[in-house]
Amino acid sequence: MPNRKKKIHKIGLVDADLLCNGTRHPNLALLKIAGYFRDNGFKRNNEDMELECESTYELLTNDCNFEKLQSFDYIYVSCVFTFTRDNPPALLSYLMCDKKLKKRVVMGGTGSYANLSVEDGFIEKRAADMENLEKDKYLQSLPHNGINMRTQMPDYHLYDDFVGVMEMTRKSKNYYKDYKKYSIGFLTRGCFRRCPFCVNKMEHITLPYSKLDDFLDNEKDENTGKLKRPYIYLWDDNFLASRYWKELLLALINTGRPFQFRQGLDERILAQSKHGEEMAKMLASSNYHGDFIFAFDNWFDRKLIVRALKIWKFHCPKRETKFYLFCGFKQTLNDDKSFQQDIARIFMRIKILMNYGCLGYIMRHEDYKSSPMPNIYIQIARWCNQPGFYRNLSFWQYCYKNQTYWEEHRLGIKHDRLKTYEEFLDDFKNGYYSDKKICRTLQTVHDFLEQHKEHKDLFLSFFNLSFREMIEPSLWERNN
Description:
Layout: E1 10-15, H1 16-19, H2 28-39, E2 43-44, E3 56-60, H3 66-69, E4 74-78, H4 82-86, H5 90-97, H6 99-102, E5 105-108, H7 122-131, H8 137-141, H9 160-167, H10 177-180, E6 182-185, E7 188-189, E8 207-208, E9 231-234, H11 245-254, E10 259-261, H12 268-272, H13 276-285, E11 292-295, H14 302-315, E12 321-327, H15 336-355, E13 359-364, H16 374-384, H17 387-392, H18 395-411, H19 421-429, H20 440-451, H21 456-463, H22 467-470
Parallel strand pairs: 1-3, 1-4, 2-3, 4-5, 6-9, 9-10, 11-12, 12-13
Antiparallel strand pairs: 7-8
Helix pairs in contact: 13-14
């Protein structure tokens, strides 16, 4: 029989969010797709080989020209964030619109549907996206007979070339540590909370997903013999809500590797579960990597949060604990009452966190851009999300310090102390700023207070909250 010529395929992989200024972590779906091609004998295009006789897969970045795109047999695009689809970069726009490429492009990811309502087809879009790759005809045609996203081992080297180039342009190599130092995956999927802003808003339960061995990388450095990826991070939606939380947590602990839940943990469960004390004790004594991160998304959960904080801080009084503070959701230009409430509730939550010695981290929904004053959210985030500012300066002091820094470095005017808002207002009325620029940070907070004079005293009390003055250890200490 005559020899049949081996069919060569060229596959492009596109991290859509990477094209749009990027993120600090790799796209897990792409890592798994790349792993599937690797397991089917495909070679990464940067490996030492004869490209013309091997099927290849390649991460495409913004330096890929439109002509090169036409050379790929299939292109798989993953988009996690909605802002990428809302303002697509040129390469992504071309992939989405070019008629010649359309039949060869497979596009998915939460970024394509996360903001849809149920009426607009969210349920159908999510269901289709979750099954898209397993049903892909080309992936099913390969020897491994289709990808299983639960069990597929990622190809952690997919971004190597990109990271190598980018590290030469950045001062800190740690910026890309997520691409180089971590095994990444889900142990569980789903959540019962049904938060309206979340991609799990139609879920009812947390279920097992992957096993740890499905994504735990054991590759070692040839020179040192040490693990190349000594850390683990997990994208679980609500790990503590799983009925298997204990055995999964023990499995993580038994690896001996530092681990972290990147989406945070649901602290309310410590107060709601009969195992809350045990959960807190196990987590606090584990080899956890970095800050413990929980979420305080809703002011109306404050009673549960406080009950949980009393448990958590008793078992973990010294380790840094941070809470995501969700805000900006469903803001509109003409609803000033909702806007004021949203800003107030940010600080009301911060006050509780300060009482318990915890950090906050502002997470803005993109609706904040439609609020009456979007920049106030930006300034609060710049203060709150930097622990050095949050611990040592009130929000007002942070805003005023921006002004003094500008005056000192641009005008040579030194200030020996930070003035109160009342002292600033006196300077403002007396013409001190008539020949000086007021920095945007200070101007924003001044405008906000002037536009909401009826609640100025309340907001000033929030803006003057001091972390060092607010901590009250007696709130979580117990009498033995």
